[in-house]
């Protein structure tokens, strides 16, 4: 299909308005509503991914120095799995859901019909620039919408590749890519959308929500937060440590919204945990982790400076027990563990989003609940324990977007679970059927015939009619029989 990328230098309000107008014409034609169109675009997205794996890996390496393994498993494979799940389940998702009716509307039938919202905007993030761009688009397409994708300018190689590939593979009368930075995003946010899906930080999330409010546009905000890891002493420490490392440094070197942000453990157990972390980190990334090919670099100099500032804080600089090495010229920071970090330090006041992992110690593990709940609700919360009572209390008392017991980040791969935040960590959820639902309106439909028209609905109202109406509204066959018989 023919495609022309809008020149980023001239993409302003007029171009944004024209883009939305064109897509709305397509949507209003009904083209995107058919099963045939939806499944064809999902298959095209799968083919795009499968046919250009090397280019995708190369762009991710250019933007973040991601290893080929991490790029394939955490971006390419997950995107392909999302496509396949949507293709397999699409007919079932699209089918109206039959629901029960009440005696008040007898005889009748009812169903819930999922209909597309219209023209939607997806603004994606830089840390997983391929997956986080296209995973929401899968939901938007599956639900039958026209879509504009705005990739992150902080991952320019991936952004450019997305524009090129979507232009070649997708229906550009319904699916567009707009590249650019603040000006282009601002121009897009000025338009009236039927939904906006944003992945990123809370500061920009507030800007997106404020812009959406002007048009009463619903939003999904996939943000972040300080995701805690509680570590008990009755565990397989080696396995737990490896899973913490995989979720922290094995996920874009900590630059992931669900990476462990800090650990809480007891004062007595902390030394054992630190030793285990040191051992496994060296086994994974060697004695000189700055040279490891399995660790992503920091995305840019601004984030490098931000992380350096966290480490240079007077309250924190003496707490490093492992790592702390930096190479500004290569934008690399080694895996860094800090012990007994003060809770009022800078590193504990914001999401770290990098390779630094503070450890907070408590006298009793139950105190961790108060520590977690004293801050904003995190996107994810993790606990390692074999204590059944502690697991149950953690699930019941810790509010987070998602909770994982005895692992980290793995809930992301389960498409039957919703993925999203709560409070300041986000609004709305997606993945699997939840992605379809995020971009659909659930329309209530009630079917009635001309049979069974009840005179009691209509004036003039009498005491008998009132008695029957009360019985119908209250429900219950016995009440209706009593009303018919004139019994109070």
Automatic annotation (TrEMBL):
Pfam families: Aldedh. The active site is at 222, 257. GO terms for biological process: aldehyde metabolic process; response to abscisic acid; response to water deprivation. PANTHER family: ALDEHYDE DEHYDROGENASE, ALDEHYDE DEHYDROGENASE TYPE III, ISOFORM Q. It comes from Cicer arietinum (Chickpea). PROSITE patterns: ALDEHYDE_DEHYDR_GLU. This is Aldehyde dehydrogenase. It catalyses: an aldehyde + NAD(+) + H2O = a carboxylate + NADH + 2 H(+). Keywords: NAD, Oxidoreductase. GO terms for cellular component: cytoplasm. It comes from the Eukaryota. Belongs to the aldehyde dehydrogenase family. The gene is LOC101515558. InterPro entries: Ald_DH/histidinol_DH, Ald_DH_C, Ald_DH_CS_GLU, Ald_DH_N, Aldehyde_DH_dom, Aldehyde_DH_NAD(P). GO terms for molecular function: aldehyde dehydrogenase (NAD+) activity. Residues 15-445 form the Aldehyde dehydrogenase domain.
């Amino acid at each position: 299909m023919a495609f022309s990328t809008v020149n980023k230098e001239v993409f302003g309000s007029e171009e944004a308005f024209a883009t939305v107008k064109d897509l709305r014409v397509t949507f209003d034609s009904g083209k995107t509503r058919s099963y045939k169109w939806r499944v064809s675009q999902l298959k095209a997205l799968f083919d795009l991914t499968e046919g250009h794996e090397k280019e995708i890996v190369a762009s991710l390496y250019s933007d973040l120095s991601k290893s080929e393994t991490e790029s394939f498993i955490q971006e390419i494979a997950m995107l392909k799995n999302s496509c396949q799940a949507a293709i397999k389940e699409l007919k079932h998702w699209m089918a109206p859901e039959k629901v029960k009716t009440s005696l008040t509307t007898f005889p009748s039938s009812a169903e819930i019909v999922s209909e597309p919202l219209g023209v939607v905007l997806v603004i994606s993030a830089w840390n997983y620039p391929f997956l986080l761009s296209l995973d929401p688009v899968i939901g938007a397409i599956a639900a039958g919408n026209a879509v504009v994708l705005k990739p992150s300018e902080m991952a320019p190689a991936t952004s450019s590749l997305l524009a090129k590939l979507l232009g070649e593979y997708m229906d550009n009368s319904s699916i567009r890519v707009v590249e650019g930075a603040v000006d282009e995003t601002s121009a897009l946010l000025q338009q009236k959308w039927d939904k906006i899906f944003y992945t990123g930080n809370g500061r920009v999330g507030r800007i997106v929500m404020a812009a959406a409010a002007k048009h009463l546009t619903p939003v999904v905000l996939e943000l972040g937060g300080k995701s805690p890891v509680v570590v008990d002493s009755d565990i397989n420490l080696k396995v737990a440590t490896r899973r913490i490392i995989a979720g922290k440094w094995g996920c874009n070197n900590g630059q992931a919204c669900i990476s462990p942000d800090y650990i809480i453990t007891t004062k007595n157990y902390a030394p054992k945990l630190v030793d285990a972390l040191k051992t496994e980190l060296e086994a994974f990334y060697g004695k000189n982790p700055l040279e490891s090919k399995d660790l992503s670099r920091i995305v840019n100099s601004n984030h490098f400076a931000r992380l350096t500032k966290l480490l240079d804080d007077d309250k924190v600089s003496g707490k490093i027990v492992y790592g702390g090495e930096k190479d500004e010229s290569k934008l690399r920071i080694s895996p860094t563990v800090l012990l007994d970090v003060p809770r009022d330090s800078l590193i504990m006041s914001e999401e770290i989003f990098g390779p630094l992992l503070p450890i907070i110690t408590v006298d009793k593990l139950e105190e961790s609940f108060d520590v977690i709940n004293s801050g904003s609700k995190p996107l994810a919360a993790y606990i390692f324990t074999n204590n059944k009572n502690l697991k149950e209390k953690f699930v019941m008392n810790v509010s987070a977007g998602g909770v994982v017991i005895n692992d980290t980040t793995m809930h992301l791969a389960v498409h039957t679970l919703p993925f999203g935040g709560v409070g300041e960590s986000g609004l709305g959820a997606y993945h699997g059927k939840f992605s379809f639902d995020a971009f659909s309106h659930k329309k209530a439909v009630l079917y009635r015939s001309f049979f069974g028209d009840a005179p009691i609905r209509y004036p003039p109202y009498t005491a008998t009619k009132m008695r029957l109406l009360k019985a119908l509204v209250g429900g219950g066959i016995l009440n209706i029989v009593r009303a018919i018989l004139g019994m109070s």
